[in-house]
Amino acid sequence: MIEHKDWVTEKWQNVEIRYRVRSMIYDEKSDFQHMQLVDTYQYGKMLILDGIVQTTENDEFFYHEMMVHVPMLSHPDPKKVLIIGGGDGGILREVLRYRSIEKATIVEIDPLVIEFCREHLPGISKGAFDDDRTDLIIEDGAVYVNETKERFDVIIIDSPDPIGPARILFSEEFYRDVHSVMVPDGIMVRQTGSTNMQPDEQKEGFALLKGIFTHTMLYLYTVPTYIGGLFSSVFCSDSVNPLDINHEELKRKFTLTSIETLYYNPGIHLGAFHVPGFMKERLQ
Ligand code: SAM
Question: Which member of 14, 44, 121, 159 has the lowest number of beta carbons within 10 Å of its beta carbon?
Fold first, then answer.
């Protein structure tokens, strides 16, 4: 991320995007990554890791709602959830809105991210780290899934792109360990990047996961500050095929939760799995 006193710039090979800044709150290297927290005019406070925007106050709900409500409402009765990464607390917040949840385990490698997000972005976690059902573990997610005896209904991998400490979270070994800590009717979702800027991430991730899970489906949505327009996540399960989910049944389940959302709804949920032709071609 290049700073000018009034702007920060996210820089990709052939594309740059600039954000006008009110103030730079934090700009240091942690033990794991370069962490910046800036207050921007357009998106409010913004967390940046290794030069890439992770989350902002004004558009975080696009991503957090699609990463949580798609798997949670697809699962018959989720009680135990595992979150890998997710140090800003947005995924944890949305998961804990389900009354059925007995335990939400969050495994984050960098305690500084949690500390800074709790202090400067409290509107994202909304007290989720203090919930009795939260089990916070500071550890490398790859080590955790390799060693844990716990089993989970839903696993949500909220990691940055495959750089720095997150690289291991895109490996076959990690995915096989994730598969082994899921219950038979379990569901795993993870972000697979921008369709325009990171085509290889979808192609390679999808091919790898198809070899491990019975059902592997990509779903698409948009996150304004995730560069490149269309953003993608992958849904993996041995028992739940997202295309078999009935719209009426999904609406009934969503209404029963009485969860109000800003982006997610059952129509968007089902539509997100009907990907355009260029993506179908890419995944073949
Ligand atoms: N939504 C963002 C995205 O899609 O790019 C990710 C946000 S979240 C802040 C990413 C978190 O993953 C960071 O707090 C980072 O420290 C954490 N992380 C990176 N590598 C990790 C690992 N190996 N184990 C656990 N957490 C990790």
Answer: 14
* Residue closest to 156 by CA, chosen among 229, 243, 225, 98: 98
Contact 254, 265 (CB under 8 A): yes
Report whether 244 contacts 208 (CB < 8 A). Answer: no
Measured CA to CA, the distance from residue 97 to residue 192 in angstroms comes to 25
As a whole number of angstroms, the longest Cα–Cα distance in the chain is 52
Ligand 1 pocket residue status of 191, Cβ below 6 Å: yes
Q: Span 210-214, mean pLDDT?
A: 97
Handedness of CA 204, 205, 211, 214 (dihedral sign): negative
CA of 49 to the centre of ligand 1 (A): 9
Going by alpha carbons, the residue nearest to atom 2 of ligand 1 is: 54
The answer, yes or no, to whether any atom of ligand 1 lies below 6 A from the CB of 169, is yes
**pLDDT value for 81:** 98
pTM, entire model = 0.97
Alpha-helical segments (H) within 97-189: 111-120, 122-125, 141-147, 172-180
At 137-195, the pLDDT tens digits run 999 999 999 999 999 999 999 999 999 999 999 999 999 999 999 999 999 999 999 99
* Ligand 1 neighbourhood includes 168 CB (under 6 angstroms): yes
50 catalytic residue (yes or no): no
Which residues touch 281 (CB under 8 Å, ≥6 apart)?
Answer: none
